[in-house]
Every structure is written in structure tokens, then in C-alpha cells.
Amino acid sequence: MEFGPLVEAAWLRHHIDDPDLRVIDFRWYLQRRNGRDEYHRGHIPGAAFVDLEAVTGKGAGRHPLPTAGQFEAEMRKAGVSTESMVVVYDDAGGSVAARLWFLLELFGHQAQAVLDGGLQAWGEPLETRAVGIAPGDFHAGPPDRSLVLDFEAVKSLRSAPLIDARAVERYRGEVEPVDPKAGHIPGALSAPLTENLGPDGRFKPPGELRRRYEELGAKDGAVFYCGSGVNATHHLLGMRIAGISDARLYAGSWSDWSNRDAPVATGSEP
Q1: What's the burial of 94, exposed, middle or buried (CB within 10 Å: 0-12/13-18/19+)?
Q2: N or C: fewer beta carbons within 10 Å in the chain?
Q3: Domains and CATH numbers, the chain
Q4: What is the per-residue pLDDT across 142-166, written as a single tens digit (0 to 9) for each?
Q5: How far, in Å, CA of 53 to CA of 235, rounded?
Q6: What's the whole-model pTM score?
Q7: Radius of gyration over every alpha carbon of the chain, rounded to an integer in angstroms
Q8: Phi and psi, residue 225, nearest 5°
Q9: Catalytic: 226?
């Protein structure tokens, strides 16, 4: 059965008790709130919680990619097996859940999806009790390096479009809440990830997404970045929904670029 990259809440309700389905709560917040605390306040029944920081490795930027061994261990603790269908959700329009969707693909899993509309689309019931989860046998293969770029590769980009997923104010350099410099990578285009969503917090239809990416010049091989490489995966998911392949992630994103002796642009012009 073809699975993903999105599932609807109605589908999840129908399949929630399937033995080969694993639901993961991947809520995370840049400031003030804590994902684990929100999980304990209420989560989809049977869902495991995975902490973003637990699947963050060491390296450039605030959220470097994990090692295969690190990721494998966390997925096994969450009950994921090699044959599992994994549904990931957040409460932020998929902007965080897409990161785990991406990591599963990066390490070779074949069946993962984001819950379209997230926790809000699910609604009720929620549970607060601790979930006992049997360990899975997930196997992380070697990471698919064709999906990610580092600083040197981004600095050397010539023809592939580079697209900034952050809010317009951060792209312009008007505000910067976390990183040492404000602005954007010279030549990058601004495409706030929130514009992938409709007023109901769900992804726009594939045709609308495709038109948006075509207007941006985001073709096969486009590169996306954000603050730390988390939210930019929303665009990789959007590109997949739109039927455009080979989107790539600048893994270190602005948190890497802004900590180097690298040029910075401000304002609205790429």
C-alpha cells in the first residue's frame, strides 16, 4: 500500500489500532514551551513522544543531524520497527513533524507520513497517561547524503535555487531572536513555510503547492534552509506533496551560516 507523505485525521482514527502503525508526538518549540510537557498534558492515544534534542547530533548549527546509531536507538525506544508505518504529528502545521519525516527518509525508512493539520485536526480523544511501548527493531541505514548540503556546498551553489523558510522579518534582518547575525544568505529567496498551509492549518492541495514552487523557481534540486534545519523540512515535505523531487536541506541552516565569517544580506531583495 502506498503510504504518505500525509495522512488525514480520519484515516488515523480508522487505523489507530493497527499493529504495524506507530504514532509519534514530535512537538518542539523554539522558546517558552516544552514538547514533553505538552505531551503529558494530552496526546493522541498510544502515541510515543520523541524529543527533537534526542535526535540531534553534534556538528555545525543548533540542530545537526544525528548519527545512524543515535537515530536508530531513539526510534527503537519509540517502538518503531523496520516494517512500521510511522505517523508523526505536532501542533505547528507540520513544521516540526516534517523534520522526523525527513530523518526517517534520510536513514532509509520507507513508510512515514505527517498528520495533516496535526493535533488540532485530530481533536479528541486525548490521553495523559504514560504509554508503555514495546521496543521496535528499527534499522537505520547509512544516511542519504544526496538530501543534505553543508556550508561549503551552499557557498558553492551556482544554479540551484536557495530558499529561506523563515518568517519574512527574519529574512529581512529586522529581527533575530536566536542567532548572532540578522539577515539571510545572499541570493536566497524568501518563502515562509506558513504559506504552504491553508486557513485550516492543513497543507494546500498539490496543484497549489506546485504553482507556488514553480513561481519561486524551486525545481528539482532546490535547497531550503531555516534557522537550524528543522522547519525547512516543511518545504521538503511540501515539494514531495507537489510532486517535485530531489529537494535538499542545508542542514546547518542560518545557525551555521551566521556563526561563520560569511556574507549576510538584509532587506527584501535576494
Answers
A1: buried
A2: N
A3: 6-143 (3.40.250.10), 146-257 (3.40.250.10)
A4: 999 999 999 999 999 988 899 999 9
A5: 21
A6: 0.96
A7: 18
A8: -145, 165
A9: yes
